[in-house]
Amino acid sequence: MAKFRILSIDGGGIRGVVPGTIVVALEQKIIKKTGNPDAKIADYFDMIAGTSTGGILTCIYLTPGNTSEPSLPRPKYSAQEALNIYLKDGNKVFALDRAQRLRSGDGILDEKYSAVNLETLLFQYLGDTKLSQLLKPCLVTSYDIQRGKPKFFTQHDAVECGDSNDFLVKQVARSTSAAPTFFEVSLAKSLSGVSYPLVDGGVFANNPSLCAYAEVQAKFFKTPDGFILKCKAGDKKKEELSEITAKDMLILSLGTGRTALNYDYNKAKNWGLAEWPKPLIEIMMMGVSQTVDYQLQQIYDSINQQKNYLRIDPMLTKPKMVQMDNATPTNIQDLKELGTEAAELNSRKLDDFVDMLLQQS
Predict the structure, then answer these.
(1) Which of 21, 41, 146, 333 makes a 20 to 30 Å CA pair with 223?
(2) Burial letters 66-75, b for 16+ CB under 10 A, else e
């Protein structure tokens, strides 16, 4: 029986260079093993999930290219072309405008960066593509500050439920990456005309792996021929349908780099509102990602299917790497080298994972 293949990518701003580089290595392994120079990462996963920078990568990987041949959709971008949004244009997204910096008090009184460059870049890559037009099911996280609940952008719901669940992909990418203090709140509008004020999904799901796991369990059936949405089960015989469990899923979860967070007790014990915000954000993002990894490890350990779940999240080796908006050429190059090293250190695991991906194709 085939397995449902999930790629999940964490949030982390410019640190998206790290998982983006690992995906380049993964795609090259697929190309080598299949002998197909046109193989793309979207061809070998059944769902891609992303938060913030991972959400942007998700949208790029799944963007269709040959719209003139809708019956034979192909991914528009290779993994390397997706990575280039960071390597070539990351400094534009996090460009410090003198006027904006003064007006915002360096991010204290208003957002630190103008969203104009980010929005321009997203339009260049994504155009006016709709969520429903993405090539595969996806899950991209954001948080609705007006309704006080998570907002999940899902391609499969956009396809099945129509305009109320459909959005322009550039708005999806903008919303999932609307990091508080960095960029202003995004106002996304569904194709049915409903507005959603949204912020970065990293505030609650910096590692979206478990969200994707739950989404698949809730909305898909497995059949002898593969997987179908539950809403499409129709008249299929009940004996042909079964629930998807952990043993039916392959998950590759990529982080944007971790750090050994440590704060001295004697200093932290008397911190107040002035000192806590920055370390608290770091602790929350790191803690959420680590907790999801722990939960999935326990799930797969309990069924003795450890190979079905692979998490790669290398240690950040320099203090400047931790900064999500450090888009200097030197730091981007350091992040790229870290991603390359992580792919090399996990080369055998990635080879094994590729073998499992190809078995399902």
Answers:
(1) 41
(2) eeeeeeebeb
